[in-house]
Specification:
six-stranded antiparallel beta sheet, 10 helices, elongated, about 325 residues, five-stranded mixed beta sheet, 2 domains, Beta-Lactamase, single chain, alpha+beta, Alpha-Beta Plaits, 11 strands
Length: about 325
């Protein structure tokens, strides 16, 4: 009679899991799929008959072999979770399982989902691992909304490029990396020449349009994925260029300067007849006893030199001088 009750309870548990509205699959201790419920079929586009009894469940989520969260729990490889999931944590103690979030390519459906994943072990009376249950939640819309909000928070409202906050974070990150790797880091500071006169003559709406065009122009020149073009403040822009020497940074600066002049935005109060920018360039291999402020000061000093040399020019603060505090310059 006891065996009948056990079998009845087992059948009920299996039926309950199969009919759950939450996408769920279960692996045995050897990572073979023993349950793949209907909600999981709908989420992944993979039928239960195609995965039950196999260890091929990864095919539902990825286009190349890699462990799912349940695999790592079943195999006692939870120390590797960070290698596969950018976001993860324990759901309680180590016996309670783990929670993670991840983009999955979903090959059968042809598009990506961002999934919230929970994987928890089930143990027998003797403490042996019997199975691991993994449940899934589609968080794609929430993730996309979060990404959009983060993009808004990191973008300049007028020009659409990175804002000052993003610049500060990027510069700090790249400074630490360059210091660790002993590689050069360059910074360009751009200032629109005689911008106040431009605004006074053409109006603030034209001034805003001018800044937008310059921002997009600079962004089109600076193409490497690791580079950043940001609005530094007012009519100033900044460009962070990791892993580039002073000569390379100078070439980028000249291309940006020429491209802005090539926009041919009329500026009757400029000696050049069109809107131009002055650019300060600094490059340094960071050392342990300096912060990124020295790079900003060096680029600012170079920008001062470019403007006082006649504007529409690029000036470079030499690499060795970039590790010294720049002299305080009077305002332009």
């Amino acid at each position: 009679m006891k065996n009948k009750h056990v079998e009845r309870d087992r059948s009920f548990a299996i039926k309950l899991m199969r009919d759950l509205v939450v996408p769920t699959f279960v692996l045995d201790a050897a990572c073979h799929v023993i349950i793949w419920n209907r909600a999981c079929e709908r989420l992944t586009g993979v039928a239960a008959k195609d995965v039950i009894g196999t260890r091929e469940h990864w095919r539902a989520f990825y286009d190349a072999p890699r462990p799912c969260l349940a695999d790592l729990v079943a195999q006692g490889r939870t120390g590797e979770i960070s290698e596969h999931y950018a976001t993860f944590d324990k759901t309680g103690d180590s016996a309670s399982g783990f929670h993670a979030q991840n983009w999955c390519v979903m090959p059968q459906l042809g598009h990506q989902y961002y999934l919230a994943i929970d994987a928890g072990p089930i143990y027998g009376a003797e403490g042996e691992l019997i199975a691991v249950v993994e449940t899934l939640r589609d968080m794609t819309e929430q993730k996309q909304a979060q990404t959009a909000l983060e993009r808004l928070a990191s973008s300049d409202g007028l020009t659409g490029i990175a804002n000052r906050r993003s610049f500060d974070e990027k510069l700090d990150h790249e400074w630490l990396r360059a210091r660790r790797d002993k590689t050069p880091l360059a910074l360009l500071l751009l200032d629109v020449d005689h911008f106040k006169l431009f605004n006074d003559r053409y109006g603030h709406q034209a001034g805003d349009d001018c800044l937008r065009r310059i921002a997009q122009c600079a962004a089109a020149i600076v193409l490497r994925p690791g580079d950043l073009v940001a609005r530094y403040g007012g009519e100033e822009f900044a460009v962070v260029l990791p892993s580039i020497d002073a000569d390379g940074a100078l070439r980028v600066a000249q291309r940006v300067r020429e491209a802005v002049r090539g926009l041919a935005i009329p500026h009757a109060d400029s000696a050049f007849g069109v809107v131009t920018v002055s650019v300060g360039v600094a490059c340094v291999v960071p050392s342990l006893d300096t912060g990124h402020e020295v790079l900003v000061k060096a680029a600012d000093t170079a920008l001062y030199q470019a403007k006082h040399a006649g504007r529409d020019q690029v000036a470079v603060e030499p690499l060795l001088q970039a590790t010294k505090p720049a002299a305080q310059m009077p305002p332009l």
